[in-house]
Amino acid sequence: MRQSRRTFLKGAAAVPFTSALPHITQANVPLGSATLTTVSDGNLMLPGSFIFEPMPKDELAPILTEYGISDERLTPECNLALYRDGTNTVLFDVGSGPDFMPTAGTIIDGLDAAGLTPEDITHVVFTHAHPDHIWGLLDDFDEPLFYDATYMMGRSEWDYWWDPDTVSSIGDARAAFAVGAKRRMEVIEDSVQLFDDGQEILPGIAAVSTPGHTPGHMSFELRNGSDSALVIGDAIGNHHVAFRKPEWISGSDQDGDMAATTRKELFDRITSEQMQVVGFHLPQAGMGRVDKDADGYVFVPGDV
Predict the structure, then answer these.
(1) For the chain, the helix, strand and coil percentages under 3-state DSSP, each to the nearest 5
(2) pLDDT-based confidence at 29, cuts 50/70/90?
(3) pLDDT value for 26
(4) Three-class SS string for 97-124?
């Protein structure tokens, strides 16, 4: 299905391929007796309008200047969280696969950098079903790449993308997202495990509803001993305007108002509980902490 000019896929095509090469940076920190790692799936190439279109341009400009961000082109990292507790090896999302963008879909290289192969993954847990998070589900033969893994997704997110009306109601700009998600979900339909907000889906891993970016977007609280971290997916989608102005509507979110409310609640929780965070599109391998200052919030990357 052909997408409209408003999609970032078309906008990304205007960005030179050589401007953003795939990377394999990763962060690796202990979490109690477990280990929390980020595994790179490369990076995206997006037109700035994909995020910035609804934002007040006069207030946006100094923030972009502060962070050295272009209003025309963005190349955010794609960082998949990987949690190992000695029994389970849990991968959060599966990346883009080969069919989304030429600079993304490098999950095999990312796993190799972590000393892993797809068969080492025991569980795949989805934050949501946008292309850069689920299109990497299938290999070249349209079989699950992580063939020994148990697949898990929030019930409300599954129901949204499974609904046949979604493709016609989501809008032309995202219609291909719905088609692509459904095709991949059909492959795991008979084996996927669904869960709800607040449920402990695996030992030490609890689901946290963070809707707005998609209707059923989930984050995950990881606890091991006295240590904790929050895998936030795209609930906080960047390190600049989302941190400085979490109340602003972002063009990347399907429900902008709900996503803004979710961001503000997440920042309150993360800072009050002093939790580590793993953000799919945050820089320097996506793992770090959040500080609050007079201008909003600041992402402080961990050691890479």
Answers:
(1) 30, 25, 40
(2) confident
(3) 58
(4) CCCCCCCECCHHHHHHHCCCCHHHCCEE
The Cα 128–Cα 181 span in angstroms is 10
**Torsional sign, CA 211, 9, 106, 20:** negative
Domain spanning 8-301: which CATH class is it, in words? alpha beta
pTM, rounded to two decimals? 0.91
Number of residues written out for the chain? 304
Taking CA atoms, 300 is separated from 25, 98, 242, 250, in Å, by 16, 31, 14, 22
Q: Which of 4, 36, 15, 165 is nearest to 104 (CA)?
A: 15
Neighbours of 58 (CB within 10 A): 7
- Give the other-Cβ count within 10 Å of 65's Cβ: 10
Q: Which of 194, 92, 175, 83 is nearest to 136 (CA)?
A: 92
- Per the structure block, which two tokens stand in for 9? 């896929």
Which three-class secondary structure state does DSSP give residue 213?
A: coil
**pLDDT (tens digit per residue) in 262-284:** 999 999 999 999 999 999 999 99
